[in-house]
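PROTEIN DESIGN WORKSHEET
SECTION A - STRUCTURE
LENGTH: 189
TOKENS:
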């Protein structure tokens, strides 16, 4: 036989384990299983603690949201209840002026007119402070259906769809139409 054809030595046949070896293997497996169970139980306890912590955080967050919602609702109720307070307060001097004018028994027409004009200025000032602005379009301006209401179409010597006259002023409150201006509009020719 040459060097290439040498047979390999045969491995000894698997011998059966001895009872001591089987018992040691079973004990090792049991020990591993107990260790794995202990690890699993420890992990379970850690996860239970985390779930409890997260549940507590969620309940606290929910309570905070409910408290915030309740406080916000209370604030909104207060704002609604007292929203007109500043407006009413700014109108009190106007009322005082009207009452003072009515106390004058023998006022001349000039005095009545002067007092009425002063009271009107007070009223306009109170309205402006509360963001109430007049809508009074000039004759010939383009008709704006967002701020004006056409009462009638009239023949006129001006562009069609323009304001001919204002029958009643309108008013805005903070850029929102409180009352549209009533206008007549030039009819198409």
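SECTION B - SEQUENCE
RESIDUE ASSIGNMENT:
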């Amino acid at each position: 036989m040459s060097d290439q054809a040498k047979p390999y030595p045969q491995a000894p046949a698997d011998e059966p384990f001895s009872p001591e070896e089987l018992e040691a293997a079973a004990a090792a497996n049991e020990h591993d299983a107990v260790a794995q169970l202990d690890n699993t139980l420890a992990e379970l306890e850690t996860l239970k603690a985390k779930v409890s912590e997260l549940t507590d955080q969620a309940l606290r967050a929910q309570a905070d949201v409910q408290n915030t919602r309740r406080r916000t609702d209370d604030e909104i109720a207060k704002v609604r209840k007292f929203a007109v307070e500043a407006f009413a307060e700014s109108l009190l001097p106007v009322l005082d002026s009207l009452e003072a004018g009515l106390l004058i028994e023998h006022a001349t027409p000039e005095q009545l007119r002067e007092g009425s004009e002063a009271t009107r200025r007070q009223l306009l000032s109170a309205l402006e402070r509360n963001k109430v602005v007049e809508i009074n379009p000039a004759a010939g301006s383009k008709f704006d259906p967002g701020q004006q209401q056409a009462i009638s179409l009239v023949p006129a010597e001006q562009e069609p769809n323009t304001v001919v006259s204002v029958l009643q002023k309108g008013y805005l409150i903070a850029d929102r139409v409180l009352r549209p201006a009533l206008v007549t509009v030039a009819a198409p020719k």
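SECTION C - NOTES
The chain has a mean pLDDT of 89.
The beta strands are 132-135, 148-154, 163-168, 170-173, 176-179, 181-186.
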